[in-house]
Structures are given as structure tokens and as C-alpha cells.
Design a protein that fits this description.
It is built from two helices and seven strands. Helix content is about 15%, strand content about 45%. The chain has about 140 residues and is mainly beta. It has a single domain (about 5-130), classed as Jelly Rolls. Strands 1, 2, 3, 4, 5, 6 and 7 form a seven-stranded antiparallel beta sheet that branches.
Length: about 140
Amino acid sequence: MTDDREKDMDHRRPHTPPIALPFLEYDLVRELRQLHEEPSWKNGQNAKTLVKYDDFRVVLMALKRSSRIPGHSAPGRISIHMISGHVLVHALERTFDLLPGSFLALDKAVPHDIEALEDSAFVLTIAWPGRGKNPVEKR
């Protein structure tokens, strides 16, 4: 892990692992309002993990206009479901223009970056292959 990444993680909201119950229900409008009220929002982005299983995450993300999430990839598949605003996702030698109601899914390990053209919010879903196996099943 790089020093910059470690420093960034020091400023993140602590998780109460796991955030995984038989059901989880959220008011996304209220959750976004809270993200916008936190000090992290002043830096251009903020996020909250809503669901956290070993093999599956759902994250509510908020980006300020002109902010970017630099190029990266995930070992599993991801999806981005736009709630508000306007972002560009650069991946696979394409630019995906995402507006409210847009949905984009990317396969495993696809490098991508995200650029906010206006204050934006989206739900990011991440699935990791081969994780989350029940230890009882290994016996």
C-alpha cells in the first residue's frame, strides 16, 4: 500500500464490520445529505459503504464538480448507478457519459477513471470473485 493511500484511508469513516444483515434499508437522500455535511466533502469527494459482505460491497459515492477518481481497477465486476449529476467514466478506450438514471457495468479488472462534470452521486457495487466462501463449506 502506498503512503498516499494509507494517508487517505486515515481520513475515512471507520466501518463496523460487517455491514451485512439479512436485509439493509437506506434512505439515499438522507445518506447523501449526511455525506455533504461531513468534512471530507470539502476535499471533493465522500463515500459511505452501505453493504459490506466478504464478496460484495455497495458504496454511496458523492463527487464535487471537477473532481476525479484517478485510474484504478477492481479484481471483480463493478456497476455504477447514477443518482444525480453528471460524470464521465473513461474505460476500454471509450468515454461513458453518465446522467441520473444511467447504469454502467464493467467486467473484472477493467481499468477506469471517473470525472465529475457537476456535483454528482452514484451507487457503486463491487463483487470480488472467490471471496466470501463459508468456512463450513471448506471442510
